Amino acid sequence: MTVEKFALAGAAGIIEGVLDHPEGAPRGIALVAHPHPLFGGTMDNKVAVTLMRTFVKLGYVVARINFRGVGKSEGVHDHGQGETDDMAQVHGWMVEKFPGLPVALSGFSFGTYVQSQLGQRLLAAGTPAERLVLVGAAAKKWQMADIPADTILIHGENDDTIPLVDVLEWVRPQDIPVLVIPGADHFFHRKLHHIKGWVTQLWRRPGDVADLETDGTPAD
What we know:
The protein contains five helices and eight strands; from the N terminus they run E-E-E-H-E-H-E-H-E-E-H-E-H. By secondary structure, the protein is of the alpha/beta class. The protein has one domain (about 1-200): Rossmann fold (3-Layer(aba) Sandwich). An eight-stranded mixed β-sheet has the order 1-2-4-3-5-6-7-8, with helices on both faces. The two termini are about 30 Å apart.
């Protein structure tokens, strides 16, 4: 894995970010969004870094940015609107930089709100994301947008920042399953390996080595 720092001129000033490159040519693009900037969230948050490392291992080139007012990113917190605008700008930049590749959206906590909103924007524009991965989804904290049926949702059983019941109420009308990590708190202390494990297992695309026999039963 190689790391490349970047800075984009955004609507509120400089957007600070990092590209994490896989070995060999990338098979896709992944955008990672960090937790709430007013509560210590940065692109180096351990859940965000876990998502990054997981996607790099899957062969994706990953873009992480600091939201407005964090690190070297300029501007002030904009309650998700400006942050979504900035992530959309990064999306456009990445698509130009790596043309023809599918784009996955992933985020943690506040970052899930940003990515759910961006996902709806891309869908409306006719350029939908390949798939979403949302960890500690910010249900009832912010107005989460509807998400695709194949979204990977991971939540901690003992999350006292965003209670599991709130997530279930949000996704119940959408009929989307939630992967619940027993004993995990909001920040997944000592449980980060479950995030990597589940995303890796569930991330399947045409042409991947099959885990199933032709009749759909698990291979031995």
